[in-house]
Amino acid sequence: MSIFTIAEASAAIAAKKLSPVELTQACLARLAATENTLHAFVLPTEERALADAQAAEAEIFAKGPRGPLHGIPVGVKDIVDTAGIETTCGSKILQGNVPAKDAACAAALVSAGTVLMGKLTTHEFADGGPSFDLPTPPAANPWNPEHFTAGSSSGTGAAVAAGVILCGIGTDTGGSIRGPAALCGIAGLKPTYGLVSRAGVAPAAFSLDHIGPMAWTAEDCAIMLQAMAGHDPADPASASQPIPDYRAALTGHLQGVRVGVIRHFHEVDHVVQPAVQAGIDHALEVFKSLGASVHEVTLSPLADWQACGSLISMTERAAAYEEWARTRLGDFSARVQRRLQLGALVSGVDYVQAVRRRRELRAELKAAMAGLDVVVTAGAPGEAPKLDAVPVWDAFAKPGFTIPFNVAGYPAMCVCSGFGPGGLPVSTQIVGKPFQDAMVLRVGDAFEKATDWRKTRPAMVS
Amino acid sequence: MTPELTDDALDYLLASAGLVLTAEQKADLKTIHADLAAMKARVRKSNGKPRGPMAELAHGFGFGPEDLA
Description:
heterodimer, A: alpha/beta, Amidase signature (AS) enzymes, B: mainly alpha
């Protein structure tokens, strides 16, 4: 069976041309064929998947589908609570932890009638990585398994790219949805802060944490976001905003859309590989051909955004895991131990100055985006590095392209915009205004449908 | 200029945080001190003047009817 997108599979299921059970069996076969190489799952749930698929098939046969996710195989990052299924956050510390209830985002997928394929590999507590001193190995990149997936939603990126699942839940504190989306060649949306409930998801840094969809296409992300978005009083940061029809916003054209390009981020502040530059330049031409206008945008240097986000992240993370850091530091991976140690070196005054700088940076982005609909820059600096080439103090390497939009809380998505000389994907990042996630999805979807990048899957599953 | 992080200062900070590190871990942590100091400098104003009130987060208590009862 070929690999379906959610849009394709849901249409075929609704037309009774595709059985959810057969679709799930095909995904399970792909899982069996790839998992020894990819390590995308910390816990596959084959029996649950087949039971979900059979239930979906029976219900769809009797009453029709609940919606486009009914009968669709999905995965859930292992920092997201799942009722009755071990949730370890990829850590020795939580081995044997079985939550009593689903996280809000996982419950939303259950309500939509999805088929749970399993818990997906994550960097430990969504931090650090790749680590080889955890209960399970790091996920490998399906385009070349010697290479990194990025993280921390590493298993989600790998499993979606390999077609083992049609979509999965990711989380993003500094780029943990968009990084794996970029390096694995899929679409990943970090929604506006507060749009998707964090209830039942292990914290990383509370003011930077986002939950969002990862899938092969922007359209599939729109379908998934529709199920996940909405107010939840169980999350103190949950926004109360009307939820639009995200898929209906995907018009296929960009007539009148105003696109800004933060050129200095990827051409000066952190110079990207030529393939990434070519991908962004090509994307801008495609946007124009679809009716958009392109404008230049200047912001504070990328390193300012990185410093602000990193100091906030180090402090909030150290606060979240203070007790275990004091009593069980040696039970964390070496990479996470390093991250937690950093909290001791950041003072209360440092944190407050970072929070105040954050307010200035947000005001700057708001002013720069006045009159624009989206801005674009790189999603990652190049193709995925080898798994053993990621520096241990990577937080202090060159500044990342994703963390500015965690600092700002603005919606941002990475889409595949080509391939580098190593045959690995490169990406472009599209950023919208708060709660205009639909516009981000519209631009990403129009780009994908105007180009051929979505037609190529990794060789290991082609 | 980056202020020096002496062994005594590092020991104090780690003890304050309740962290117990090996000598090797402490040496590793000290290698990023200059990078961390550079980050801290970036979130401060370069002109030496204090920030205004618009750089403060609004603090709202969110009092509800139950607070007035």
